[in-house]
Write a structure and sequence with these properties.
This protein has 212 residues and is an alpha+beta fold. The chain has a single domain, classed as Sandwich (Jelly Rolls). 18% of the residues lie in helices and 33% in strands. The strands form 3 sheets. A 6-stranded mixed beta sheet has the order 7-4-9-2-1-12. A 3-stranded antiparallel beta sheet has the order 3-10-11, with no helix packed on it. Helix 1 packs antiparallel against helix 2. It is globular, with a radius of gyration of 18 Å. 29% of the residues are buried.
Length: 212
């Protein structure tokens, strides 16, 4: 009787290599720097781009406490806690996400398809006021397929659409949505905190698109 052998798809490979890295590298900054080329391998795989055509578009959703972004949730690791997300934005979604940080977690943001602008900010005030954060933009870069942005804990940034559909694959040290993140207004310097992106579980590779 023939034995069926299941070939690993690119998500399986990403999970396996990430788990191996987390097991061998205890230094967090080194761990996340070394994870970038592992994510880059996935972003370069044509099977991932093909599968992304089946992913639902992500939206900014209204709810209690104001609007929240949405992430597709492909995987959450039971041992190390890291999560693999997707983001798929329509070209009609104008403007940017709110300027924000990711609180205590590390994030690798990898562009799979399309282009957008990533902006980075630095904080200038003494943090003595709970509702105030004076920030200044330090970078504004247009990024495209295969480019990866490492966002460390509490680093301030945003992603700005430029009239193109964009798709991203994101690895986070912890699943977002269950804790508050910082929100910043660079014009008024208003600061507040609210929950991170809602998580929508989705199969990265539905059965009819799974890599062979």
């Amino acid at each position: 009787m023939a034995i069926e052998v299941k070939t690993q798809n690119p998500l399986d490979v990403l999970i396996s290599k990430t788990r191996e890295l987390f097991a061998s590298e205890p230094d967090l900054d080194q761990r996340w720097a070394k994870l970038s080329p592992i994510l880059a391998e996935m972003l370069a795989d044509p099977a991932v781009i093909e599968a992304s055509k089946t992913w639902p578009e992500t939206h900014v959703l209204a709810g209690e406490g104001g609007s929240r972004a949405e992430n597709l949730l492909f995987y959450e690791d039971p041992d190390y806690g890291f999560a693999i997300n997707g983001l798929k934005k329509n070209p009609d979604r104008s403007g940017s996400t709110r300027v924000h940080d990711h609180a205590h977690i590390y994030t690798l943001y990898g562009v799979l398809d399309g282009r957008e602008r990533i902006e980075r900010y630095e904080r200038l005030d003494d943090r003595s006021r709970v509702d105030y954060a004076e920030i200044r933009r330090t970078r504004s870069d247009v990024v495209g397929p295969g480019e990866i942005d490492l966002v460390k804990p509490y680093e301030i940034h945003t992603e700005v659409t430029i009239g193109e559909s964009t798709v991203a694959v994101i690895i986070r040290s912890e699943k977002s949505g269950g804790f508050n993140q910082g929100r910043y207004n660079p014009e008024t310097f208003e600061y507040f905190e609210s929950l991170g992106p809602r998580q929508t579980p989705v199969e990265m590779f539905p059965p009819n698109t799974e890599a062979m």
